[in-house]
Amino acid sequence: MDLIDTFLNPDVLVAVWPLLWQGLLLTLKLALAIVPTAILLGLLVACVLYQNHRLLNILVRLFVDFFRAFPPLVLLIFIYYGLPFLGIKLGEFSATVLALVLNGCSYYAEIFRAGLESVPAGQNEAARSTGLTARQALASVIVPQGVRNVMPDLASNTLEVVKQTSIASAVALPELLRAAQIGQGQTYSQTPLIAAALVYLVLLWPLVRVISRMQKPVVIPR
Amino acid sequence: MDQILYYFFNWPLISPYLPEILQGFLVTLEMAVLTVVAGTVLGLLLAVVRAYGIRPLNWLLVVYVDIFRALPQLVIIVLAFFALPAFGIVIDPMPATVLALSLVLSAFAEEIFWAGIAAVPRGQWEAGRSSGLTFTQTLFWIVLPQTVRISIPPLTNRALGITKGTTLGSIIAVPELLNVSSNIQSNIANPTALTAGAVLFCLVFFPFVYLTRALERRYAPKR
Fold first, then answer.
1. pLDDT for the residue numbered A75
2. Domain count for chain A
């Protein structure tokens, strides 16, 4: 029973629940602001790469590689603590969104690029020969097929992006993790942390299951 | 322009702190290597265990993998650091971070190796078994070498993602590169320290990004 008192104390849980609930809402708001923006930007970047414009490709590649290589937390610290020296002052929420959109859209771009490249060249040629312009062929022939091919990767990257919102706690934005740490400080109990972990599990486990389902089942002959 | 140079590229100002920053850089490297090695080995081990198809064990494995995939890395790090002591396991920030990240990587690596095992054609298993090898021999001598080869590109990709998580250790005060450079930044009120940290991070992770791309190209399935 000691264990339950330490890790899932009902009294503490009742006391910190409003705090955690606000944190959860903020986490969801972050995810809603970041995921669609990053997906759209990523798709846009992949389409630009698909056009194979030489100079543009080099620039876009540099952008993507840079933000893929850069740890998101470093980016966030840089935006939040570094940029104000130049007079660019972003709030905790906007700084987090900016950092994670830059990071996330590079990953999405990489995935979309692989998807677009997986569409056989004949599809593009066939579309063009029926009189579609390059842009029309891309939008209505290549993108729909390419995106379908990389759905599992898109889903698992989305999971990663949602999980990453927890780094906002580094700039004291009271999302779920930060809220739990505040609760931990107020109650001298580990219960808020465990409760937050459980909330994350409830929130994200379904997505993990969906992603696992997308993979083909493994059958080992015996 | 002058302002940018003064605030972000003020090398004379931070030169006395360079040894400290390098020290942080070494801690980051050490954590990255430990995490990748421990996570990959554990992941391979779990995938091998899963291949034997012992039901209750496999259910446990799936739960383990799902939990470490669903929880944010930072949450696991914070739990390892703050919750383990309640069990009497007091752990320093650095080992706590490496432990947390290795567990996360092992879950992802298990999934990747498992998918790799699935990608080895059935005929390979049958050929092995029909030439008189036992299940274990077939697994280790025929299937696993091919699995590892198939798994390298997705694994490097994932390893890159998770080693970037070493920066999360700064939140529980691991003296790694980000922690050191942001401390210096607040001491001298000049973000050049962050620039220096950023440059060093690029030095570690850029080659990694190119490595993953080269590996992907090299091992890509033929179309």
1. 94
2. 1
pLDDT of residue B223: 42
Where chain A has pLDDT below 50, the residues are none
d(CA A184, CA A192): 6
Across the A:B interface, residue pairs with CB atoms under 8 Å apart total 138
Q: What is the mean pLDDT of residues B160-187?
A: 91
CATH of the domain at A48: 1.10.3720.10
Q: Which residues of A touch B208 (CB under 8 A)?
A: 69
Q: Is B90 on the interface with A (CB under 8 A)?
A: no
Q: What is the pLDDT of residues B23-33, one digit of tens each?
A: 999 999 999 99
Name the closest residue on chain A to residue B88, using Cα atoms: A3
Q: What is the DSSP letter of A80?
A: I
CA atoms within 13 A on the CB side of B201: 30
CB B22 within 8 A of CB B181: no
Query: Domain extents for chain B?
Result: 19-219
Nearest-neighbour CA in chain B from A164: distance (Å): 7
Query: Yes or no: is domain B19-219 CATH 1.10.3720.10?
Result: yes
Q: pLDDT tens-digit profile of B71-88?
A: 999 999 999 998 888 888
Residue B113 forms contact with A (CB below 8 Å): no
Question: Is A222 in contact with B198 (Cβ distance < 8 A)?
Answer: no
